[in-house]
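User: quick one, sequence for these tokens?
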């Protein structure tokens, strides 16, 4: 059990360090964070839609696509919860049969239940975030077609950015479930998966650089 708890502590510490670093970097240079850039783009989109008065169909279609994406992810989260509940008893047996490294640090039965509980909690939190994103996207659909008003525009931007944040949190919660899944196969896999996840998030959280091509 000590191996698993140590690996879990290291994994949580690594994620905490990464997000503290990301928060500090975003505070220093906001344009380096893809989340800040996305929020700015959503605000400009709301301004364009509400000030033109002729793009209602475009607004509804865009919001519909966002609702459909969040609905698909929420359904996926619920299906994963059902799958984990149905296969929970077999996951531990599969993990022990698949990898011999588990013989070095065997996992007690109560720790298997903890791992399953964390995995279910991860999918449940993802479902909550996607459901909240759907709720706010629907609210924006009502607000964005109202007559232009500066106060209403700011409120619409706040709702849309909040919906986008909920969607991002749901996706991140899905990402966090990957190290938990690999944790079933050994404590070392949890640390390696966390390091790999942080490396991937470092790329995803950075604004893509613009490639300049010169045509001759």
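Assistant:
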């Amino acid at each position: 059990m000590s191996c698993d708890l140590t690996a879990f502590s290291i994994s949580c510490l690594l994620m905490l360090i990464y997000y503290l670093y990301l928060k500090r970097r975003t505070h220093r240079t906001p344009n380096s964070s893809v989340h800040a850039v996305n929020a700015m783009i959503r605000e400009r989109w709301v301004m364009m839609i509400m000030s033109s008065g002729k793009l209602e169909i475009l607004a509804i279609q865009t919001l519909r696509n966002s609702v459909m994406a969040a609905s698909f992810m929420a359904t996926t989260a619920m299906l994963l919860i059902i799958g984990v509940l149905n296969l929970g008893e077999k996951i531990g047996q599969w993990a022990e049969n698949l990898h011999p490294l588990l013989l070095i640090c065997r996992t007690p039965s109560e720790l298997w239940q903890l791992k399953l509980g964390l995995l279910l909690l991860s999918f449940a939190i993802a479902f909550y975030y996607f459901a909240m994103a759907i709720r706010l996207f629907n609210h924006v659909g009502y607000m964005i077609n109202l007559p232009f008003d500066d106060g209403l525009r700011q409120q619409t931007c706040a709702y849309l950015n909040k919906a986008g944040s909920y969607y991002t949190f749901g996706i991140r919660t899905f990402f966090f479930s990957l190290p938990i899944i690999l944790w079933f196969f050994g404590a070392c896999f949890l640390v390696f998966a966390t390091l790999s996840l942080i490396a991937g998030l470092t790329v995803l959280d950075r604004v893509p650089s613009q490639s300049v091509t010169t045509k001759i």
